[in-house]
Design a protein that fits this description.
Chain lengths: 106, 388
């Protein structure tokens, strides 16, 4: 299984195996990673799974319009590498992906 | 030989021993009675929820689907059609757009809790949860008052199924028809006199100049009313059921209401009212040695995944300190429950006000009448006795 490293708001780094097909949000919440609320459960309806993609910029599929619109509701600073982690599905080519979580989601 | 019949009253009453056998011995099980596969392990359910291309909702998501509903609601369509519908509705359900409802919801909770001050024993469902949820929904959707009691009765009937025929019975279909007629009246009224509310926006919506299909407007509104009345009350009933049965958790929550959100999340994990939903396979799939075929229906047993020891240690213990993130109590993936935020807000507020009037209580009966439903699980009646 490909590995993903999450950098929690405290700076703590957590590396977990993520099943291919799972969203980055799902893997984080199922493994107790701190820094994601995911209030809506993964339906791209809340912007509380905001993250910054710190690696693999060319390999992460681009955001669709619905995600880009919803992302504007994120509370923390929105940067060029901001994404909603519920909308990124794990794939083999994302092995070693680094995902930073913002200070706050609510 | 092991069997799993989601229509059986034994499963309505206590599905958890069956779930354990399913998870441990038959993780991909063909239920002859339900005519579908059953997935019961947490990771398998999550994988299915994250893969709508393989596990489609377009042929219906209720275990026993209502006629003509599949393909016309949020829960019974796949992207991109699903996303188009959801885009119209989701803003109404976001946290920031619910903040203005906090105070009206608290007022409703107070007014419904107050008469309980004089009663030593009462049915929580008749006296509290039904009245509260219907009033909240009517306020949220701006529905005309007067029909709440009937709507509640019909919503509860709609979600049931007949244990003998394993289909919807005539009374369930009649209730569904009533709800559609009711929704149609509301939609017609809003089109005539539009207000700044969800149903007005939704019933007038055009996407890229293309009006929503009339059936989508009707059945999505019908589903919103059904979910708002039945699912919200079911969630609340299961929460109070857990607090009634766990005195230590209850006393902690009453002494410190800021513990209610964690206790609520654990309740959604421990015995969510949304026990089982279904999908339809879009391609052949081999899982746990079983060959599943394109076109087969698959039950995602959220209630079983939520008790999976592989994910949640001591899964059969109700532990309000657990913080069970990633639980399946609201489903997950693109079809995760739309009403999560309003449900959390409403139930937390309701319980805060209820506990002010009824701070200590226990169940009056050991055995409860459970609704006959292949999809949902909650008691029809829940008598509570005050502890003085």
């Amino acid at each position: 299984m490909p590995k993903v490293t999450y950098i929690e708001p405290s700076g703590n780094q957590v590396t977990i195996d993520v099943p291919v097909g799972w969203s980055l949000m799902q893997a984080a919440t199922s493994n107790g990673v701190e820094g994601i609320e995911a209030e809506c459960g993964g339906s791209c309806a809340c912007a509380t799974c905001h993250c910054y993609i710190e690696s693999h910029a060319d390999q992460v599929p681009a955001a669709e319009q619905g995600e880009r619109d919803m992302l504007q509701n994120a509370v923390a600073e929105i940067r060029a590498n901001s994404r909603l982690s519920c909308q990124i599905k794990m794939s083999e080519n994302l092995e070693g992906l680094v995902v930073r979580l913002p200070e706050t989601q609510i | 030989m092991f069997s799993f019949d989601p229509y059986s009253p034994a499963v309505d009453a206590d599905p958890f021993p069956f779930y354990k056998t399913l998870r441990d011995e038959h993780p991909a099980f063909w239920s002859r009675e339900a005519n579908m596969w059953v997935l019961s392990r947490y990771t398998d359910i999550v994988t299915a929820l994250n893969d709508w291309q393989t596990f489609s909702s377009a042929k219906g998501n209720l275990m026993t689907e209502l006629p003509n509903r599949a393909g016309n609601t949020l829960g019974t369509t796949d992207p991109p059609r699903h996303d188009r519908l959801r885009g119209l509705i989701q803003h109404a359900f976001m946290r920031r757009n619910l903040e203005s409802l906090a105070e009206p919801i608290r007022e409703i909770a107070r007014s419904v809790a107050e008469p309980l001050a004089d009663q030593d024993q009462f049915d929580f469902i008749t006296e509290f949860s039904s009245q509260f949820t219907v009033k909240v929904l009517w306020a949220v959707l701006g529905l005309p008052t007067g029909d709440e009691a009937t709507a509640r009765e019909k919503a509860v009937l709609m979600v049931q199924s007949d244990p003998a025929t394993r289909t919807k019975g005539p009374e369930h279909l009649a209730a569904y028809q009533w709800m559609q007629d009711y929704a149609a009246q509301v939609i017609a009224e809003r089109r005539k006199n539009p207000k700044d509310d969800l149903i007005s926006h939704f019933s007038m919506a055009e996407i890229d100049g293309d009006r929503l299909d009339e059936r989508e407007v009707l059945l999505t509104t019908t589903t919103l009313i059904m979910a708002g009345v039945e699912s919200l009350a079911g969630f609340m009933s299961m929460f109070i059921y857990n607090l009634a049965d766990h005195p230590e958790a209850r006393r902690q929550c009453v002494a410190n209401p800021s513990l209610l959100p964690d206790a609520m999340e654990e309740s959604l994990r421990y015995n969510t009212s949304a026990q089982r939903f279904r999908r339809c396979l879009q391609k052949d799939l081999e899982l746990h040695g079983q060959k599943m075929k394109a076109g087969d229906f698959v039950c995602l047993a959220y209630g079983a995944g939520n008790r999976d020891e592989r994910q949640f240690p001591n899964a059969d213990v109700y532990d309000i300190g657990r913080k069970p993130r990633g639980h399946l109590g609201f489903g997950g993936g693109v079809h995760a429950c739309l009403g999560t935020m309003i449900a959390r807000l409403a139930v937390k507020t309701a319980m805060e006000e209820f506990h002010k009037i009824v701070p200590d209580y226990r169940r009056a009966a050991d055995q409860l009448p459970w609704i006959p439903s292949s999809t949902f699980r909650s008691p029809m009646r829940l008598d509570l006795v005050k502890i003085h």
